[in-house]
Amino acid sequence: RVDAAPVIAVAVDGRAEAAEQERLAAEQWAKTHPLEPALCAALVEEDAPDALRTLMAHLTTNPAAAAAVGRALEQQPPSGRGFQRLADALARAGTEAAQAALTAAADRSGQDGRTATLLTVHQGMARAPGALLEASLRRKAAAPGDAQSTAQLALGVVASRLAGTDPARHGALVADLAARYRAANTDAARVHWLHVLGNTASPEVARIAADALVSPAEEVRRAAVHALRDGSSAEACDALTTRLRQDSAPVVRAAAAGALSTATSCAAFDALAAALAEERDEQVVRATLEALAAFAASEPRALAALEEYQRTCGLASLCRTAKVLAMAVRGRS
């Protein structure tokens, strides 16, 4: 079995300080335990929960370790635990060397098959994505194959990760994805690109998707609502509130209620409470109740709203939903 990087107990109040002490101890351990191919192979089979931490200690300390992990990754079947563990480690490391190794493995896997698709997913999950990784995803997004749509969705996630660290790259990527959405000439293609744009978490999406919110196609309106799910701008909140109150399709109104549950730029709770008083569709009412319950941590009126609906509702199944949600809220308080 493999000697794992140590976990140390630090008597401090702040978790951040404890985590930093733990990271430094792991890095010091890694400096005295070279990541040989045999060690890397053993880590793949290691059952202990510290196996990933051991890998991370190597990857964050020694750039040369990334190449060894990348080579080991390419030897793993995509359905195996080792594949998942090694790909996760490279994605989470946040170093240029780790991303280069992950990108090399992804590029060599081609465009087709499960390995190519899964490695593309991990590229999208990479912490602090660099230009090399972005370029690889752009190539995959432009080339036909199994990994194409996955790469497009992954680019949306990459854009969201760049928002706080590299606004220029974030803006350029959002603009490119918006252009692809505008060029879509079928409802199915519009739905796909709306999902991609939703992954960017950009406030610009509300403006970009304005036409989709009033599309005659229900599935397009629903995808547009989903794309605004973070409610990061007043424009997005207003659009979601309008769909909740006015859309003719219950599935769209229900999606709007769910999206408003995480909105931060408007009086979303008040909008949901007002809609609940008027809504008669069971699917939409249930989604609205769940959205109201999601506000419990920040909105003292959430529990009262659920209890009031429980007392006045006319449908037994919805009364039970309100009761269960109210109990969950009380249990968390």
Give a description of the structure.
With 333 residues, the chain is mainly alpha-helical. It contains 19 helices and no strands. The chain has helices spanning 15-31, 37-45, 51-61, 63-74, 81-93, 96-108, 114-124, 131-142, 148-162, 167-183, 187-200, 205-208, 218-227, 234-246, 250-260, 268-278, 282-294, 301-312, 316-332. Helix 10 (167-183) runs antiparallel to helix 11 (187-200). The model is unreliable at 1-13 (pLDDT under 50).
Which key features would you list for this structure?
single chain, 333 residues, mainly alpha, 19 helices, 0% strand, globular, disordered N terminus
Radius of gyration using CA atoms only:
23 Å
How much strand content do the residues show?
A: under 5%
Biggest sheet overview: none
Residue share in helix: over 70%
Q: How would the global form be characterised?
A: globular
- Number of strand elements: 0
> Distance between termini?
44 Å
Low-confidence stretches: 1-13
Number of distinct helices: 19
Order of helices and strands: HHHHHHHHHHHHHHHHHHH
User: Mean of the pLDDT scores?
Assistant: 87
State the secondary-structure class: mainly alpha
Summarize the structure.
The protein has 333 residues and is mainly α.
Task: Itemize the secondary structure elements and their pairings.
Elements: H1 15-31, H2 37-45, H3 51-61, H4 63-74, H5 81-93, H6 96-108, H7 114-124, H8 131-142, H9 148-162, H10 167-183, H11 187-200, H12 205-208, H13 218-227, H14 234-246, H15 250-260, H16 268-278, H17 282-294, H18 301-312, H19 316-332
